[in-house]
C-alpha cells in the first residue's frame, strides 16, 4: 500500500553508501576532477558495496533480487558523493542491466556471473554518437546481418572506461530498430580513440569508439534473434539518470544552504534574507518533487508496467531541476561559487550532462 | 517499502465521485459561474444524503464509545488519503461546487483537532439529520491576513451569565453565508481573550447559526469559484455559551504557551493538503482537456521522442504534465505521512505552495494553447484559470508557505527569518 518509507535493507544500503560518499568520495572528488583521475581505492570501495551483485539473482551467481527502486536509491546516495565516481562504479550496470532485462538464457548464464566477482568487471557500453541531433532510436551506427554474422559500422562517443574494457555492448541500427551486440576487445575493425575532453565528469575516462566493418557472430546479438525492446531499456536509463540527478542536486543544495547560514553580510547570515532563503526553499521543493517522480517511475518498472510516459515526464522535470538547482546553489555563493576551490561550479558543469547522457546509466 | 499503490477501496469510491463530477458538476459548471451566489442545489441534493449518513453513523459511534476515540487502530489511517483523492476528483468536476459540499468543512477540522466529545456530538451531530448544513472557519480580518497573530476580534467572558461576548469583524469566510444564514450550521471564530497576551491569548469559538449579534454583512464578488460564498461577518456583542470555546480558556503568559494559536496552525496540516488536492483537480481537468483538444488536431506528445525533436507545443504539454505530476506527488506525500501518523507540516506547506503555483501556471497555459477558443466562455478553460488562482492564495499564500518551508529547511525561527 502507498508508502514513501525505505525498507530496512534499503536503509542499511543507503547508509553504507552515504558513509562512503561522505568519508571517501567527497574527500577526493575535487582533485579527481582537476586531475582527471579517480583514486582506484575509492572506486574499489564503491564496487565492493555490492549494489549490482545484490540485484543479480542467485541462479546467475548473484545474491539478491532485482529492484529498480533499490537501484535508484543507491544511485542517489552515490551521486551525492560524486557523479564521475558513481558513473565509473556503475559502468558495469550498462551491460548487466540490459542482460538481465533482455538477454537470452544462454547470454545470462555466460555473462552475468562476471558481475558477481570481486573486481570491477571490464565491460562497457556504447550508445551515444557524435552528432548534434542525437536520437537513440535512430542510430547512425548500422548492423547488417550477413550469413551468420553481423557487420557493424559507425562511430560512438562517451564510451566510459573503453580503454580497459574486454567486452563492449554496442548499440546499432538494424532495420530501423536499435539493437545491441556484444563485441569482444581486439576484434578487427574496432578502434578505441583518444580519451575525450568533456565539460564535466572529468574524472570519468570516456572515449570515442569507431567500428569499421566489425564482424561478430549472430549469437552476440542481445536477446538473440528477437533482439531487444530498446524503449524499455531507455526507461530504465531515465530512472537511473533521474536518481543520479537528485543525488547531485541534493549535494549542491545542502552545500549552498550551509554556506548561506555561515556567510555574514550586513551583520547577519545571508540566509536571514528572503531572497536567499526563498531560493533555497524552492530548491528543496524541486528536489523533493523530483525524487518522488523518480520513485514513481521506478515503482512502475518494478511492477512490470510500461513506464514510458512516467519516465519521460520525470526526465523532463529532472533535467531542468538539476540545472536550476545547481545554478542557484552557485548563485548563493556569489563570487566564491565561480571559484574552483569550491565544489559548486563542478556540480553545475556536471548538471548539464543529464539532458545529454541518455543511456549513460542503468539501474 | 516504497509503493504508489492506492487502496482498492479508495479507488472504487473515487470512481463514484467521478460519476458525480461528470453527470452533475460539469453539467452545471458554466451556469453557476454565470449566476454568482445561486445555490448549486443539484450537487448539494446529491451529496447531502451521503454526508448526512456518514455523520449520523459517526455521531452514533461517538455516543456509544466511552472515551470517544474508539479502539486503537492498527496500521495507517487512510481516511486523509481518501479525502485528498475525493477532493481532487470533485474539483476536477467543479472546484466551486466542491466548496459547497454540505459538510462541517474547516470548522469541522478545527473541532476534530481540539474539540471535546460533548462538543463534537452537540455540533457535528446536527450534520447527521434534517436539511443540508455547513460549517465554516472565520480567521481572516481586514488587518490580519497572513499575520493571524494580529487578530483583533475579542472574546470577553461575562462572569455573571457565564457567556463569551464576541466583538469584531471577520472577512473572506468561505461558506459563512451557507453556515449562518442558509442553514442550521456553525462557524469556528478565532478571537483573542487577552490582546496583551499576543499569540497566547488566541482562542477559537463555536458560533452557531441564528446567534443574536452575528450578521453576515457582505458576499464578495470574485474572479472565480463564484458559486462558493465568501462573506464578511460582524460580531456585535454576540453572546455564546461558555462551553463553546475550543480547547482551554486559560491564558498562560509566563511560559509563553501558544497552544490556542498552535491549534489553528495544526488545522493547516490537514487543510493545506486539501487545498493542494483541489488545485490538482482543476489542474488535471485543464491538462486533460487541452491534451484531448490538441489530439483532435493531430498534436500528440510522443514520449519516446528526444526533447530536441519536439515542437514548442509538445514541450509545453510535457511541461504541464511534469509540473502537474510533481505537485500531485508532493500532495500525496503530505497525506500519506499523515496517514502513517508522522509529522507533515513542512510537507503540507511544500505541496500547498507548489500546487497553487502549478495550477495557476497550467491553467493559464491551457488557455494560451487553445488559442481563441481557450479564451471564450464556450469552453471551461477560462473558468478553470479563474477558479485556479484562489488556490495560490487561501490557506496561506504561496509566499507564506514558502516562508514556512524556508524556515524549516534552515532551522530558523520567526525572529531569524522574517
**How many structurally independent domains of chain B?**
3
Residue-averaged pLDDT of chain A: 97
Q: Approximately how much beta-strand content do the residues of chain B carry?
A: 5-15%
Oligomer class: heterodimer
Rg for CA atoms of chain A = 21 Å
Provide mean pLDDT of chain B, rounded.
93
Give your account of this protein's structure.
The complex is a heterodimer of chains A (363) and B (418). Chain A has helices at residues 8-35, 40-48, 51-54, 68-81, 83-89, 93-102, 105-111, 230-262, 274-302, 308-333, 344-351; strands at residues 123-126, 142-146, 149-160, 167-174, 177-184, 190-195, 206-217, 264-265, 268-269. Chain A is of the alpha+beta class. In chain A, strand 2 (142-146) and strand 3 form a beta hairpin. Chain A is globular, with a radius of gyration of 21 Å. Chain B has 418 residues and is of the alpha+beta class. Chain B has three domains: 8-128, Butyryl-Coa Dehydrogenase, subunit A, domain 1 (Orthogonal Bundle); 135-246, Beta Barrel (Butyryl-CoA Dehydrogenase, subunit A, domain 2); 259-410, Butyryl-CoA Dehydrogenase, subunit A, domain 3. In chain B, the strands form two sheets. In chain B, strands 1-4-5-8 form a four-stranded mixed β-sheet. In chain B, a hairpin with a 4-residue loop joins strand 2 (154-158) and strand 3 (163-174). In chain B, helix 3 crosses helix 8, helix 7 (259-296) runs parallel beside helix 9 and helix 9 (345-369) runs antiparallel to helix 11. Chains A and B meet through helix 8, helix 9 and helix 10 of A and helix 8, helix 9 and helix 12 of B.
